[in-house]
Amino acid sequence: QGSRRSADRVEILSAAIKSPPSSGAPVTVRAVAILFVSCLVLSTAPSNAQGIFPNYCASRSVNDGADAYSRGLFAEAMRHWLPCANQGNAEAQFRVGFLYEYGQGVPRNYAEAVNWFAAAAAQNLPRAQTSLASMYENGFGVQQDHVQAYRLYQLAASAGDAVAQFALGAL
Fold first, then answer.
1. Is residue 20 classed as helix, strand or coil in its secondary structure?
2. Cβ distance 146 to 121 under 8 Å?
3. Cα–chain-centroid distance for residue 150?
4. Taking the mean position of all CA atoms in its chain, how far away is CA 95?
5. What is the DSSP string of 97-165?
6. Rounded to an integer, what distance in angstroms lies between the CA atom of residue 94 and that of residue 128?
7. In sequence order, which residues have a C-beta less than 8 Å from that of residue 6 and are 6 or more positions away?
């Protein structure tokens, strides 16, 4: 029933956007009405909002996780990031890998960190490529491989990652 209410709200919003303003109503009233309905739809989104709003993970949960992380609430950050990471969000995958690398909110697990960094790196996230390169360089969670580390650092450096650029100079 909740998804039906959300669908109804989306239909109302669509109708408001498509319909021309009434002859007596100024455009600003129409804009306020559209803004109000938009806020209503977004604020009452069900907990499974990822299905209705495909960028939900890319914005709300990842940002909420970052806020929790900045307050030292690592387990809460993981609760925000892990569902998004499982859905393929590269930024969330990188952040989950970071939590595993440093054992924040979860037991330290280099192999798990490598898995998450690799998933994000495959989507061309430079920070993830740099983190994965560091794991290969140091042999954390993977067999040490300087050639693979160099290749990953190069990818990230070519995308402008300053840490990767520095690491290339130090290799």
1. coil
2. no
3. 26
4. 8
5. HHHHHHTSSS---HHHHHHHHHHHHTTT-HHHHHHHHHHHHHTSSS---HHHHHHHHHHHHHTT-HHHH
6. 6
7. 41, 44, 45, 46, 52
The Cα 120–Cα 165 span in angstroms is 19
Cα–Cα distance measured from residue 114 to residue 97, given in angstroms and rounded to the nearest whole number: 7
- Using the 8-state DSSP alphabet, how is residue 13 labeled? H
Q: What is the pLDDT of residues 1-52, one digit of tens each?
A: 444 444 444 454 444 434 444 445 444 444 444 434 343 333 434 444 444 4
**Backbone torsions φ then ψ of 159, nearest 5 degrees:** -90, 0
Task: State both tokens at 90.
Answer: 């590269």
Q: Which of 72, 126, 58 is nearest to 102 (CA)?
A: 72
Confidence (pTM): 0.67
Residue 164 near residue 153, CB atoms below 8 Å: yes
Q: In this structure, are residues 62 and 91 in contact, taking their beta carbons and an 8 Å threshold?
A: yes
Distance CA 151, CA 130 (A): 10
Structure tokens at 17: 């956007």
**For residues 50 and 59, is the Cβ–Cβ distance under 8 A?**
no
